[in-house]
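wait is this the right file?? whatever heres the structure
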């Protein structure tokens, strides 16, 4: 992520992120198609990738109803689910976050709303901000037909409404497995909030979550 980036590149990406996050999200549309989620279903899981998993995890672990958010890898084989290998962009993995949530408190559709409006730029292909490569792609790994249906319908809805200036390129693909990342990656944002990469690229996302969806924040 940050190892091969100059401070200038980080700053440029950070300014871009700030401009994107400065756009009002309070009117961001809710999904028209929703999953039949209720308190009787029990705890659910979702796996999303949207660039460096530090920021994705940092945002979702602040959302009410999210019981756990784990940084890791999805899309490739278990044998290649290691940071140094994933960073080559040849493993099929994307840096991802496994979200464990209570649908009685936050629905899958609401998670996707936060994902598209705060977490990722869904119009960037195989990159996010200063990070480039397929390992930083925007992707939704659906775990059942309901998740697939909601995700595909929401993307169609956002494209039709021209919420973004360009077409959404986020992948909607079947879940094949999730592999937690190394311990030093877990909760990196909370442990290192002043790290240049975090301060420039990810803290604006946390601020946008709190500003746009205060009722959905734990803190």
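ok assuming it is, sequence goes like this
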């Amino acid at each position: 992520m940050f190892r091969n980036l100059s401070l200038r590149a980080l700053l440029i990406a950070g300014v871009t992120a700030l401009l994107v996050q400065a756009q009002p999200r309070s009117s961001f549309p809710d999904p028209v198609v929703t999953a039949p989620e209720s308190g009787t279903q029990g705890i659910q899981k979702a796996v999303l990738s949207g660039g460096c998993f530090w920021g994705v995890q940092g945002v979702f672990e602040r959302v009410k109803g999210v019981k756990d958010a784990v940084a890791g890898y999805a899309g490739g084989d278990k044998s290649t689910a290691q940071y140094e290998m994933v960073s080559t962009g040849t493993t099929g993995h994307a840096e991802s976050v496994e979200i464990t949530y209570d649908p009685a408190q936050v629905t899958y559709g609401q998670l996707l709303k936060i994902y598209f409006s705060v977490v990722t730029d869904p119009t960037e292909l195989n990159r996010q901000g200063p990070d480039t490569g397929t390992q930083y792609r925007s992707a939704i790994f659906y775990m059942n037909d309901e998740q697939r249906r909601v995700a595909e319908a929401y993307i169609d809805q956002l494209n039709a409404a021209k919420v973004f200036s360009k077409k959404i390129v986020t992948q909607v693909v079947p879940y094949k497995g999730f592999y937690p990342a190394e311990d030093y990656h877990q909760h990196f944002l909370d442990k290192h909030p002043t790290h240049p990469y975090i301060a420039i690229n990810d803290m604006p996302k946390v601020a946008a979550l709190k500003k746009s969806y205060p009722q959905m924040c734990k803190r």
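Confidence is low (pLDDT under 50) at residues 15-24. so i think its the right one actually
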